[in-house]
Structure formats: C-alpha cells, structure tokens
Amino acid sequence: MPNGDNITLAELLEMRSGLYDYAGASELPPILDNDPTMVWAPQELLAISFAQPANFPPGTSYEYSNTNYVLLGLVVEKVNGRPLAKAMQKRLFRPLSLSDTVYPASTSNVSPGRSRTATCTAALPSSSPPSRTRPTPRSTKRRSRPARSSPQTTPA
User: Fold this and answer.
1) How far, in Å, CA of 69 to CA of 26, rounded?
2) Are the C-beta atoms of 65 and 72 separated by less than 8 Å?
C-alpha cells in the first residue's frame, strides 16, 4: 500500500490518506461494461488502487477516496472477527433499532464506483421509542368532510 506505514485510521476516515480512488481507474469501465453484475472482492479493488501512486502524502490534503472505505471495512472485520455485514448489524444497526437498514452481503454486486458502506439503505428512527412490532398501516380511506357552503350574496 503506498505510504501504508504513514497513514492513520483518522486520515482514512477524514479522506486525507492520499490513496488513489479505484473508482477513477481507466480499466474499470470496460470491466463493468462486460460484466455489470461482477462481485468485487476488497482485495481486487485495493489492487486497482495500489497499482497507482499516491495522490499526495498522508495528511497534507483532502480528496474523497472509495479506497479508504474498503480499507476501513477490512479493519472493522479484523477488529470484530466477523464479516463487515455482521459487524454492522451487531454494533450499529441493532443497537440503534435500525430494523429496516441492511448492509449488502459480500456476494452482492455493489458497484465499485460507490463505497460499500455508502450503500446501506437506512430508515431513520422516529423520535418515538422503537417498537418491537411493526405498526399497522394507516387506512387509505379519506374521511368525508361536510360540504362547504358558498357565500351568499344579496341583491343590492
């Protein structure tokens, strides 16, 4: 990894690592054109990024890089000893009662042009306490309203 010994986790999170963003690689569009449902392993995406020199020394500038999120996902897997999807469910989604939030499995064909963590489909929790059962849908019937009377005019 270019500058790997000098990049901190904070720099990965802050998009200040300087690592090349694999999503901008010229070899990516032909691969996606030929196989748009290809499942990308993190190592494949990192190989694309690491084949390029760093864009700048770590911590000296800012530039969004999907590569940072791939690396951070691998760190989460290593620290938690489980796949990223399970770690996200256990440590984030379940404690926050985000029951409608999912993280794609490693067999999902998430586009490499988007970070894996950015593909979560989240429903924000309401301000009321979380419910253990799903709410019943509201009726779609409209209530009838009394007819409005039009203003009466009197001849002058």
Assistant:
1) 20
2) no
